[in-house]
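Hi R.,

Here's the chain you asked about this morning:
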Amino acid sequence: PGFDVTGIALSKFLTLHIRVTQNYTSTAPVNCTLSYEGEGDGSDEIDLDPERNLITRVSLYVLRCHDQHHFPAHTFVHVKNDIPLGRGLGSSGAAVVAGCVLANEVGRLALSKDRMLDFCLMIERHPDNVAAALNGGFVGTYLNDLNPEDMARKEIPLSEVLPAPAGGIDTGLKPPVPPLDIGRYIRFPWSKEIKAVAIIPDFEVSTAKARDVLPEKYSRADVVFNMQRVAILTHALGQSPPNAQTIYSAMQDKIHQPYRRALIPGLTEILGSLTPASHPGLLGICLSGAGPTILALATDRFDIIAHAIIKKFKDTGISCKYSLLELVQQGASVATVPDP
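And the predicted structure, written out as tokens:
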């Protein structure tokens, strides 16, 4: 029920291996060479041009806000991505956070995580994913009411924020600096018994398409329905032992899941047919992000729960795989590795 509000950091990782070699004569665009290895479909289509790749474009935006127009000469970035693309598991949010952290390190900017969140929110304009990826844990988020001048700056079209070489050599050299304190987050407790079973179907749903099916207005009853449940859920997921009936009921939603059923075959039956009574160990079930991944929170019998959902998808002609994930408390971090 925490649509665009709550997020969790799970144990699938986007890792950057960075090396800056000052005695290297650089001929690459913006002094950066990019390489990539990743999971799932679409990995071979990742653009390795640092002026077009999302991670390095975010880095360039942050650097240029601090009057650094290129990467230090010469910067090598190898991306290792375990997060499937286009599956509702936060791959784009993780990329935005990674780009911001990359700029902070190579540019020696000494930004706090709160300030990095401002930069992230200029690009990924929904705070739940980036706050969880940046800070770890189970988080609740909101966007602040800004003054008119700052609001206008925050809502500048994304094409004017990120560097876009198609617009010419000077595009993005003087980008808009984020207002201070665009959004806030708080961490909620999470019971150590709870794990997340992620059932990942073999097709993509774009976030834009998943948002297009949502209505412009909601009834008061549906809004209150979700507010009641998210208020309970943020406490219930921290209780030990977890109460399955409370969590299952509190994970119901009327804001986004009913409208996305047409995009995800079998979603209605999956969400309605698995319960703590029918599948002991299950706590609750929901769509992960924009989908199509299904997230089942559970304390036991993870394999049985996963294969029950996989079978529902198989009945509609869709193949899946699943991962058993845990909450990660640390968030984005940096480690220095000595040269061999």
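The longest strand covers residues 14-20.

Let me know if you need anything else.
M.
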